[in-house]
């Protein structure tokens, strides 16, 4: 029983990272119709940068904030390159983000090398209902919860959030009322970058990060996001948490080697089922 | 009287094909003007040019004051509430220009529906939201693209009554682009007839309603009652 609780809480912590990556994907896709394949790179860049800031002597909190801000900046840069030119189709922008994700590898290896990196998070072991697990997992959950609450407040209650939702709902109408849809797209990319960055910053103390960690993040994040048709943040959150728990359960009771396969199987199943109903409009 | 819309010699080409060819059109302040034409005559192109969404090959488009569009098909933010749709209409005014009160006064029916998803409303209700959303920007001129399309006659009559009120009480100029020529000529003082990208006829609505070229093509051959 305590094993199970441990797996579930650990899984929720890992899943929170997936959910953050997924919500970044959703934030960008809703507004721009671009599937941002550079999403995982934001997490890696933010995590690496946070490590550097901590090594330089900055206190916890400040360093992590620096990482998230770098993620936001990286998101903005990817956005400018991917959708900055008027008339770029979402399909073209997708390929651009894919290319930028690979370019990020080069930058990361150049600056931080190709060895796994980590930094300490919340030290010690926590006990939850008899299960012992790294205390840092609780911090991940404690941060992710309010972040998602804040996000839904932002989209449902603020003018800027509603303008972003308006672009997602009807691009033409948004233009008519005077909303600059390209600027909203860039804001979405910045937000997506910050969310991706937060995922990397939060999970690195319990999962080392290397330059190619983005693959696992993007596969899992995409699987979670695709559950909600890439447009429903709440479903993406649930999907991310579910994936995290499913993977730790598979690793705990089965074999650790099958974690990514869980995401892939889920993603394929969802995509096949969805394509039979409504096609996902990547190139629409 | 200054014109709020002044289109001179407007020519628009799509990949070589000429959509608009030397169009002259003006709408005076507080005037209601109709633009009538069949499908493919170039009405949508003119709407885009007036909204600044395309670059003309020749001629000029001058809009004095704020122009707000009631688009064809109503173009709701379907996932958002009626209230949010209206508030977004005031986007250009900034935070302080988003008081929806006046629109609910004008369309009391919408006040009851303010928390409903705009996508779940009937066509007539959506048209009210579209007009209300356009009014939120406090425009000098309203560009209405197909007021009556797909709506029941009673609903259209109600919308027309509202438009007459708005015109009378606020001196709002209206350019009504409409397939239903009879309706357009009844509602507006002046009208233009667009055919294959050119203005074929223009003048006072009362005169056009008796013009055989107009009655034959757009009014089913019947001369409108004076």
TrEMBL record, chain A:
CDD domains for the chain: TM_PBP1_LivH_like
InterPro entries: ABC_transp_permease (IPR001851), BCAA_transport_permease (IPR052157)
Domain of life: Bacteria
Coarse class of the protein's main subcellular location: membrane
Record GO terms (molecular function): transmembrane transporter activity
Keywords: Amino-acid transport, Cell membrane, Membrane, Transmembrane, Transmembrane helix, Transport
Annotated Gene Ontology cellular component terms: plasma membrane
Subcellular locations according to the entry: Cell membrane
Membrane topology, record value: Multi-pass membrane protein
Pfam families in the record: BPD_transp_2
Residues that span the membrane, as ranges: 6-29, 41-59, 65-83, 95-113, 133-156, 184-202, 222-245, 257-276
GO BP terms: amino acid transport
The family this protein is said to belong to: Belongs to the binding-protein-dependent transport system permease family. LivHM subfamily.
Name of the protein described by the UniProt record: Amino acid/amide ABC transporter membrane protein 1 (HAAT family)
Native source species: Actinoplanes lutulentus
Automatic annotation (TrEMBL), chain B:
Top-level taxonomic group: Bacteria
Regions crossing the membrane: none
SMART domains in the cross-refs: AAA
Keywords: Amino-acid transport, ATP-binding, Nucleotide-binding, Transport
One example GO MF annotation: branched-chain amino acid transmembrane transporter activity
Domain called ABC transporter: residue spans: 5-221
Record-linked SUPFAM superfamilies: P-loop containing nucleoside triphosphate hydrolases (SSF52540)
Entry-linked InterPro entries: AAA+_ATPase (IPR003593), ABC_transporter-like_ATP-bd (IPR003439), ABC_transporter-like_CS (IPR017871), BCAA_Transport_ATP-bd_LivF (IPR052156), P-loop_NTPase (IPR027417)
Similarity section: Belongs to the ABC transporter superfamily.
PANTHER family registered for this protein in UniProt: ABC TRANSPORTER ATP-BINDING PROTEIN, HIGH-AFFINITY BRANCHED-CHAIN AMINO ACID TRANSPORT ATP-BINDING PROTEIN LIVF
Protein name as annotated: Amino acid/amide ABC transporter ATP-binding protein 2 (HAAT family)
Naturally occurring in which organism (per UniProt): Actinoplanes lutulentus
């Amino acid at each position: 029983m305590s094993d199970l609780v441990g797996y579930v809480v650990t899984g929720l912590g890992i899943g929170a990272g997936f959910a953050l990556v997924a919500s970044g994907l959703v934030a960008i896709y809703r507004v721009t119709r671009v599937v941002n394949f550079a999403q995982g790179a934001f997490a890696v860049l933010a995590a690496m940068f946070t490590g550097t800031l901590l090594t330089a002597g900055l206190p916890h909190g400040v360093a992590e904030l620096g990482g998230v801000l770098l993620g936001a900046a990286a998101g903005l840069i990817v956005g400018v390159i991917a959708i900055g030119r008027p008339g770029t189709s979402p399909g073209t922008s997708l390929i651009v983000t894919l290319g930028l994700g690979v370019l990020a590898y080069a930058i990361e290896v150049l600056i931080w090398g190709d060895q796994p990196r980590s930094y300490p998070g919340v030290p010690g072991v926590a006990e939850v209902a008899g299960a012992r697990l790294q205390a840092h997992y609780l911090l991940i959950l404690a941060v992710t919860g309010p972040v998602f609450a804040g996000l839904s407040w932002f989209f449902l209650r603020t003018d800027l959030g509603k303008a972003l939702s308006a672009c997602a709902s009807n691009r033409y109408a948004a233009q008519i009322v005077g909303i600059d849809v390209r600027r909203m797209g860039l804001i979405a990319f910045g937000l997506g970058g910050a969310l991706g960055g937060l995922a990397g910053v939060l999970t690195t103390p319990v999962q080392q990060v290397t330059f190619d960690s983005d693959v696992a993040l993007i596969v899992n994040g995409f699987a979670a996001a695709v559950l909600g048709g890439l447009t429903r943040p709440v479903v993406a959150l649930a999907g991310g948490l579910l994936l995290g728990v499913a993977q730790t359960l598979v690793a705990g009771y089965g074999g650790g080697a099958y974690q990514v396969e869980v995401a892939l199987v889920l993603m394929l199943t969802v995509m096949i089922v969805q394509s039979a109903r409504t096609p996902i409009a990547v190139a629409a | 009287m200054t014109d709020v819309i002044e289109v001179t010699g407007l020519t628009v080409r799509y990949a070589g094909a000429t959509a608009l060819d030397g169009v002259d059109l003006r709408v005076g302040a507080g005037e209601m003007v109709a633009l009538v034409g069949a499908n493919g005559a170039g009405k949508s192109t003119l709407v885009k040019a007036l909204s600044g969404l395309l670059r003309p090959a020749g001629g000029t488009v001058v809009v004095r004051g704020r122009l707000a569009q009631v688009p064809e098909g109503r173009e709701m933010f379907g996932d958002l509430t009626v209230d949010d749709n209206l508030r977004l209409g005031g986007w250009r005014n900034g935070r302080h220009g988003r008081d929806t009160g006046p629109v609910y006064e004008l369309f009391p029916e919408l006040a009851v529906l303010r928390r409903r998803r705009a996508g779940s409303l009937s066509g007539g209700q959506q048209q009210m939201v579209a007009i209300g959303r356009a009014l939120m920007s406090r425009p000098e001129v309203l560009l209405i693209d197909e007021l009556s399309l797909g709506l029941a006659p009673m609903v259209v009559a109600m919308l027309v009554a509202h438009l007459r009120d708005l015109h009378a009480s606020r001196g709002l100029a209206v350019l009504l682009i409409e397939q239903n020529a009879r309706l357009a000529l009844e509602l507006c003082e002046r009208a233009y007839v667009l055919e294959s990208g050119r203005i074929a006829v223009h003048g006072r609505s009362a005169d056009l309603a008796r013009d055989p070229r107009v009655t034959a093509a757009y009014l089913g051959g019947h001369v409108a009652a004076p």
